[in-house]
Amino acid sequence: MLSYPSGMTVSSRALGMLADALRHHRSERATRWRKLSPGHQALLVVAYLRKGETYADLACGFQVGTSTVYRYIREALALLAAMAPTLEQAIEVASRKAFVILDGTLLRIDRVGMASGRDRAFYSGKHKCHGLNVQVIADPIGRLVWISPPLPGARHDMGAAREHGIIDAIAEAEIPTVADTAYQGAGSTVAIPQRRRRLDSDTGRYRRLSRDQKEVNAAHARRRGPGERVNAELKNWKILRKIRSCPGRADELVAAVQTLTIASA
């Protein structure tokens, strides 16, 4: 197998944070010797998350065994997931913002059981594929505040947000929030675009929005733009473009990416 040098668009702060966490973890366990230093182990894990490399490719590039790569990645993911913020911490951060943006996105996955219809809960009719629903909170300039644990892709954004307690937490803290029409009925603190009016009884068609309503929707879309950019940046972590692990392990991947993304900001 051949190996070659490559690069990644990841902040050195994120790499240093992970290396320090691994170094502290080794010190607590009194580890005497490892094949890779904490810095090289951190680089291996970031390459796995950012580039979506397989264990075999990483083993070749770092000149270690495949089983060693697996252990190093599992160890680092657990540390990163433990450092991910909770919803309470995210709400505390959000309360200091002028407003926040709430949006849902689908993470595709192909490791779902097809027998006895077990995959149905993960099939998104909107996206026509299997996936996981995550709720993303971003600030007005496009920085990540929080990512929810994943739920099956068939879940509606509003239902997922309520299940995670996001809607109640935002309402209790009275945080102005911008969202799309999927969050209709979320309360007075969540602003959504103007929807089309009811059917005209004479023509049988939806009544058009007024000029003022269209301008309001355009302004609303501009405010939601940074949140859409955060969702797009999450997919730059190629491990999330199509998750190869089982759904039960996806929450650890999402939390690990969240920790590194916030550290990079």
Molecular structure report:
With 265 residues, the chain is α/β, with parallel strands linked by helices. It has helices spanning 12-29, 38-51, 55-62, 66-83, 87-94, 157-164, 166-173, 211-234, 247-264, and strands at residues 100-109, 123-124, 129-138, 144-147, 151-152, 177-178, 190-191, 242-243. Strands 1, 2, 3, 4, 5, 6, 7 and 8 form an eight-stranded mixed β-sheet that branches. Strand 2 (123-124) and strand 3 form a beta hairpin. It is elongated, with a radius of gyration of 21 Å. The model has no long low-confidence stretch (mean pLDDT 92).
Can you give keywords for this protein?
13% strand, alpha/beta, 47% helix, 265 residues
Secondary-structure content class: alpha/beta
Helix content, binned percent: 40-55%
Beta content? 5-15%
Task: Provide the residue-averaged pLDDT.
Answer: 92
Sketch the topology as an H/E string, one letter per element.
HHHHHEEEEEHHEEHEH
Distance between the termini: 36 Å
Alpha plus pi helix count: 9
Poorly predicted regions? none
Number of DSSP E strands: 8
Integer-rounded radius of gyration: 21 Å
Morphology call = elongated
The major sheet is characterized as: 8 strands, mixed
